[in-house]
Automatic annotation (TrEMBL):
PANTHER family from the UniProt entry: GLUCOSE INHIBITED DIVISION PROTEIN A, METHYLENETETRAHYDROFOLATE--TRNA-(URACIL-5-)-METHYLTRANSFERASE TRMFO
Compartments it resides in: Cytoplasm
Enzyme class: transferase
Job of this protein: Catalyzes the folate-dependent formation of 5-methyl-uridine at position 54 (M-5-U54) in all tRNAs.
Domain MnmG N-terminal, residue spans: 5-370
Keywords of the record: Cytoplasm, FAD, Flavoprotein, Methyltransferase, NAD, NADP, Transferase, tRNA processing
Catalyzed reactions: uridine(54) in tRNA + (6R)-5,10-methylene-5,6,7,8-tetrahydrofolate + NADH + H(+) = 5-methyluridine(54) in tRNA + (6S)-5,6,7,8-tetrahydrofolate + NAD(+); uridine(54) in tRNA + (6R)-5,10-methylene-5,6,7,8-tetrahydrofolate + NADPH + H(+) = 5-methyluridine(54) in tRNA + (6S)-5,6,7,8-tetrahydrofolate + NADP(+)
Coarse class of the protein's main subcellular location: cytoplasm
Positions with a binding annotation for FAD: 9-14
Recorded name of the encoding gene: gid
Single GO biological process annotation from the record: tRNA wobble uridine modification
Pfam families: GIDA
Listed name of the protein: Methylenetetrahydrofolate--tRNA-(uracil-5-)-methyltransferase TrmFO
GO annotations of cellular component type: cytosol
Amino acid sequence: MEKIVNIIGAGLAGCEAAYQLAKRNIKVKLYEKKTLKRNPVQKLDYFAELVCSNTLRSSDLKNAVGTLKEEMRMFDSLIIKAAEFAQIPAGGSLAVDRELFSKYITNEMKTNKYIEVIEQEFQKIDKNQITLIASGPLTSKTLQLEISKLIGQDYFYFFDAVAPIITKDSINMNIAFRKNRYEKGETQDYINCPMNKEQYELFHKELVAAQLAPVHLESEQNLKYFEGCMPLEVMAKRGFDTLTFGPLKPAGLRNLDGTNNFAVVQLRQDNAADNLYNFVGFQTNLTWPEQKRVFRLIPGLEKANFVRYGVMHQNNFINSPTVLNEFNQLKSNHNIFFAGQITGVEGYVESTSSGIIAAINIARLINQKELKKFPIDTVMGGLQNYIIATSSKNFQPMKANWSIVENLEIKSKIKKEEKKDMYSNRALNSMKQFIKTLV
Ligand SMILES: Cc1cc2nc3c(=O)[nH]c(=O)nc-3n(C[C@H](O)[C@H](O)[C@H](O)COP(=O)(O)OP(=O)(O)OC[C@H]3O[C@@H](n4cnc5c(N)ncnc54)[C@H](O)[C@@H]3O)c2cc1C
C-alpha cells in the first residue's frame, strides 16, 4: 500500500519537509490550523510565516548560519529559494519581504501534486501512521497534550527561561578562575568571574537601566511566577544587594590568593565538548544588544562571544536528548518524527534545516533504506547532534554556531577568521560527500 506522510504544521520546518518528501515522490498530508485559528503572533494567512524579524541572518560563510544556509542549498531547500525570491537589501544578511516569502511557499504547498493541504487542527496522533510533528514553539493546546502523552509529560516543556551561553575560549582566564563553591567536589567545575565593589556598582547600575525585550504573549507576563525563573534584572531592581545574596553570592568563592570578593558570577559547563559555558542564574529579558553590552562589563568577560542570548518566552519543545534519535525519530515509536523549533533547535534557519533531516530519513524509512546520521562536522549535523547528545538535565534550545560542530584540531596558531574559513570549507566538503551517499 502506498505510504502517505502526515505533517503537522505548515511552518518553516513542515513546509520544507513536505517539499523534500514531494521531491522524492512521496505523498504528504500537510495539516495547518492557522486559517481557522491563528496563534497570538501570527498575522498572515500564508504558510511559513516569519513571526518576528524578517531576516534569515548572515550570508557570510564564516558565520555558522551562513554555512548552514549553503548546506541547505545543496538540498535545494524550498525555504532558501523562497528567501532568495523575496530578498530585500540588508547588507550581508538574507532579509526578505515576509509576505512575498510566505506566498511563494504557500503556492508551492498548494500546487504540488504530491502535497494535500488540510486546513484544520490536527488533534489525534495515530501511532501507526508515519507522522512528522512540526507544530512549532506555539503548538496548539490539544496537540501539546497529545505530545505529552506520547513522550511523557516530563519531557515536554512550555517555557524557555534561559541564561546566555558563551564560548569558553572568549573568557579571560587571567581574571576568571576555576573553583566550586566551598571547594565541594573533586574537580573544579565552575569558572568564576570576581567583582570588587566598584565593578559590581557599575554592573548593577547598567543592569537595572538596560532595555528590555518586548513581551510577545500575555502568558509570558506571568513567567516570573515560575519557580527559579525570576529575571536577573527584576531581581536587581529589588535592591542593590539582592544579587549578592542570590546568583552573584560571593560566599565560598574566594580568589586563588585567598582574598574575598564583593560578588562573583559563575559560569557552568554547557556541553560535553567543554567549549560552551552558561551563566548561572542569569535568566533575562534584556534585549540581545543590551545583554552583550551589560554582561561584557563582568570582569573576565570583556570579549565574551555569545552563541546564545538569554530569553524568557513561551516555547514548546521536547527533551530531545531523552526522546529522539539521530534521525529526528522518536526512540519509542519509529513512525513518529519531529522537526523544527519543537526539537530544541532555535531560529528560522535552524528549524528549517531540521525539517530536511527528518524528511530525508522519512523517505529512507518508506523506501526501506537505512536511515542516515548527518555528519557532525557540518552545521546541520552538528546542530542535530547537539540536540540529541547534550545533557538532558538542563536541555535548552540552541542556534547554529561553530562550537557545536565537531572540533577541528589545528596545531599551528592561526587567526580566528581563518579558522572559521576552515570550519566552513570542511563542512561544505563533508556535506557534498554525504549527499553522494544518499542514494
Ligand atoms: C514569538 C516568537 C518570535 C520569534 N522570533 C524569531 C526571530 O525573529 N528569528 C528567528 O530566527 N526565530 C524566531 N523565533 C523562533 C523560531 O525560529 C520560529 O518560531 C520558527 O517559526 C520555528 O519554525 P517551526 O517550523 O518549528 O514552527 P512554526 O513556523 O511556528 O510552524 C508551526 C506551524 O504549526 C501550526 N500548528 C500548531 N499546532 C497545530 C495543530 N495542532 N494542527 C495544525 N497546525 C498546527 C502553526 O499554526 C504553525 O503554522 C521566534 C519564536 C517565537 C515564538
